[in-house]
Amino acid sequence: MRHLQKTTKSNFITYGIVILTAVIIQILSSAGAVSSLIGGLLVPLCAYMILAISLNLVVGILGDLSLGHAGFMCVGAFASAFFSKMTAGTMPDGLRFFFALLIGAAAAGLFGILIGIPVLRLRGDYLAIVTLAFGEIIKNVINVFFIGRDSSGLHFSMKDSVALNLDSTGEVIVNGPQGINGTPKDSTFLIGMFLLLIALIIILNLINSRAGRAIMSIRDDRIAAESIGINITKFKLMAFSISAALAGVAGVLYAHNLSSLVASPKSFGYNMSIMILVFVVLGGIGNIRGSLIAAFILTLLPEMLRGLSNYRMLIYAIVLILMMIFNWSKGGGRLKEMVAERLRGLRKPRTKEVK
Amino acid sequence: MKKKKILSLILVAAMAVTAFAGCGKKESAKNEGGSSEGSAVFKIGGTGPLTGDAAIYGTAVKNGMELAIKEINEAGGIGGVQVEYKFEDDEADAEKGVNAYNTLKDWKMQMLIGTTTSGACEAVVAESHNDNLFQITPSGTSINSVKYDNAFRMCFSDPAQGTVSAQYIAKNNLAKSIAVIYNSGDTYSNGIYENFAKEAKNQGLEIVAAEAFTSESNKDFSVQLQKAKDAGAEMVFLPMYYTEASLILAKAKEMGYAPSFFGCDGMDGILTLENFDTSLAEGLMLLTPFSVDAEDEKTQNFVKAYKDAYGETPNQFAADAYDSAYVIKAAAEKAGIKPDMSVTEIGDAMKKAMTEIEFTGLTGTNITWGEDGEPTKEPIAVKIENGAYVFM
């Protein structure tokens, strides 16, 4: 182990944390020690962690602020839920979910490329605003689709489900703003953790590859990178579309965990995009392990605070502010060191106090 | 550096362990309590939005349910057994709804009054179906809200409201050409519109304009009203909640456009809306299962008790929730369930009893339920005259 590179070692620690968490929770839940609330939160936790690390690729590694990440999640969720509804009963569950994952990732990745081509020409605040707009567009476009199926095939409308003219055997699959109902519940915690691990391997390997260094050079100095012959558009698109595809995977997990899927402002609007950004910023921009931990804590926190009823919204906000100060401000950094010092002191108090 | 890393790792691990261990312990403690002595109370859970845009509905459901359960307990409980209740916030969101449901499950809920909104209900009903837990939704109107056999509904479903509205308009010859303004982002509004449109065709009514808006653009309705006006609609059908409807009424007056307006149960409460000029609502017709001004003793007592307890006039959500609690009582006494029965046993017994009872409450008389969970009851149409609801 000693001759391993520092980054490799750090990566293995991250994988280790994820695997260890998965094993511990799996043991606890098979022993029946996990409450229904936590049991129900496990799959969303995986989805949010994947979202956080995938956004970190764009925000932290590529250095571009994207506020439309929930849009890609939305594409992945709807594409896969549509596929699963269409093929329900025609193939085994496992195989169907595998294809659903591929389709969700591919659809979101494709959207990432399509949106990336015009959007990535912009920089800074402009890019943030345009990605925000695209996220909203995706959500609103999905809200006007009505797709139904009957004996004569697929029907499509952008008006309402009455305009589909389905015959008596007809079934509305995508019902506009009411979304898709009755998606099979295929997501499990183990699949979620497995996907998280794959997403981690993809991202960490990308960062440490030749392409990853090119991407980071664009972040650090665009002009210098261009001058040494790095194809800026190509690498930007690469990071953006990989990030979108992984967000799509998170969307697939999310969609196959709840039986009703609605492109509401709450689940796929800019609030969600900002939420994911909060995971990234709190965990540390460019710090993949930090994003994982931040997503984990911030998803659990509001549910853990349920006992405080309506005050939990207030407490959640305060905790968020405190965590942000503790983690990232200069004074907070000193405070952190002081706390660390104190804790270290607790282990061997005598030497400390004598001095 | 290295020490710091190790320290942070330990901290995170400690946090995770306490988080999970905390929950684990709570549950095991409850398990012991449940098995050794057997809980001597029925535990009824409720879910709905207590925060966010739809908080007004969730709060009404919570209050209505609370009031009914207090009364039931004072009168001796369900079959002599006291009732405990707990209400969890779901923010009208599917994901949070499932979290709220799971929280109640950890609390050992045996029956559920919920959820308040359709969107969350569709997700929760899939979970409660897995557990075979008896669920009655006071106000989840979409068809899919009760698509499993363990779920029943207190209010009218969207299709029922749309169909009944069209039939009512045709039967009473209120109008021939109708414009509809609806919220395409809302399951409730959309569901009513679609079924209204279907039935209108059968009834020979003509829909001259169908204009949609979404929750994000619900402040200015001049475009939709102008289209309705240009199409020459005699009546504008408004399947929506009263906050938006009040804006439409005000805008129509401003434009000098005066068709007749027809609404659904979501319109109930418009007269008590703050800063609303009630003269605007003059002549508005609506279908509603519950009216605050109904003269019967039951409604009067409920309105009085509700005002005393919470300082505001109850709306139909509160009435639906109040009735739901009494429906549970009626069905539970019919089924003869005991608090020490398992959730599944209670679910099975309640499912059967629900189709056998006949219930008279605030929101209807002689209501019966089919196996599909839908109630059969007569809608009441009221018209606003001189700032008060008048039965038509």
From TrEMBL, chain A:
Q: Which Pfam families match?
A: BPD_transp_2
In terms of InterPro entries, this protein maps to: ABC_transp_permease (IPR001851), LivM-like (IPR043428)
A GO cellular-component term linked to this record: plasma membrane
Subcellular location, record wording? Cell membrane
- Superkingdom of the source species: Bacteria
Q: Where are the transmembrane segments?
A: 12-31, 37-58, 65-83, 95-119, 126-148, 189-207, 237-256, 276-301, 313-329
What GO annotations for molecular function exist for this entry? branched-chain amino acid transmembrane transporter activity
Give UniProt keywords alphabetically. Cell membrane, Membrane, Transmembrane, Transmembrane helix
The membrane-topology field of this record reads: Multi-pass membrane protein
Keyword Transmembrane found: yes
Protein transport in keyword set: no
Q: Return the protein name.
A: Branched-chain amino acid ABC transporter permease
Write down the species: Lientehia hominis
UniProtKB/TrEMBL annotation, chain B:
Task: Kindly give the Pfam families that the UniProt entry links to this protein.
Answer: Peripla_BP_6
PROSITE patterns per record: PROKAR_LIPOPROTEIN
What InterPro entries is this protein classified in?
BCAA_transport, Leu-bd, Leu_Ile_Val-bd, Peripla_BP_I
Which GO terms fall under biological process for this protein?
A: amino acid transport
Residues of the Leucine-binding protein domain: 43-385
Q: Does the keyword Manganese apply?
A: no
Homology family: Belongs to the leucine-binding protein family.
Residues that span the membrane, as ranges: none
Protein name stated in the entry: ABC transporter substrate-binding protein
* Extent of the signal sequence: 1-21
Keyword terms, alphabetized: Amino-acid transport, Signal, Transport
